[in-house]
Amino acid sequence: MSEPETASVMDGWLDPPRGGRRPGVVNWTLGVDYLTDASSFESAADALVAGWQRRTDDGLLKPILYLYRHAAELHLKAAIKVANMCVAEPYQDIDRWLRTPGQGGHSLVALRDRLLDMLSRPELDAGDPPLGEESLDGRLLLELHELDPRGDEFRYPSRWDSNAKATIATGMPGGSDTVGKSVLIDVERMGADLSSLNGHLG
């Protein structure tokens, strides 16, 4: 006699909500792309920042930074994919390059450099895109990369530093001096700057 199948907990989420609650739609777009996901992460961060004055929660700072940083990464990947379709000699296997650590992966600088290389091609005639280190958006992108070069700093409380041969705390705006101290941050200004960067990339 076979044992009865146990229903998945997640399958229960697919039951119609009761009591007039509104459901969400899974995979609500026809296609899966970087731009759609980038906009979703950006919208989540915007919502947390918008509610900051009603309910400040310092524990949300790292998730907010993570959401905006991940949105920037996805916006860059979306732009690279679009540019790659428009150039005379596209990069082969661009999807693999975008996912490979040490190439595109999670490096905002590597992604920016690839995008700028593509935008500089004569067939795109993009002029002088404002992502260089002399522009505000370019500087912010570089600072965000330096704060989280691998896209995982904001997900953990600490990381192993092979140079220092020690576990160090996750970097945050303000540097290492923020650990164990009350360093204040203008959350709404941070959100506006990062939202502006994402809007430009998008």
Q: Could you provide a short overview of the structure?
A:
By secondary structure, the protein is mostly helical. The protein is 46% helix and 4% strand.
Structure, described:
With 202 residues, the protein is mainly alpha-helical. The protein has one domain (31-171, 187-201). The protein is built from 7 helices and 2 strands, in the order ααααααββα. The protein has a two-stranded antiparallel ribbon. Strand 1 and strand 2 (166-169) form a beta hairpin. Helix 2 packs antiparallel against helix 3 (61-86). The model has no long low-confidence stretch (mean pLDDT 87).
On the 0 to 100 scale, the average pLDDT is: 87
Q: Work out the radius of gyration.
A: 20 Å
Global morphology: globular
User: Can you write the helix and strand succession as a string?
Assistant: HHHHHHEEH
Separation of termini?
56 Å
Q: Care to count the β-strands? A: 2
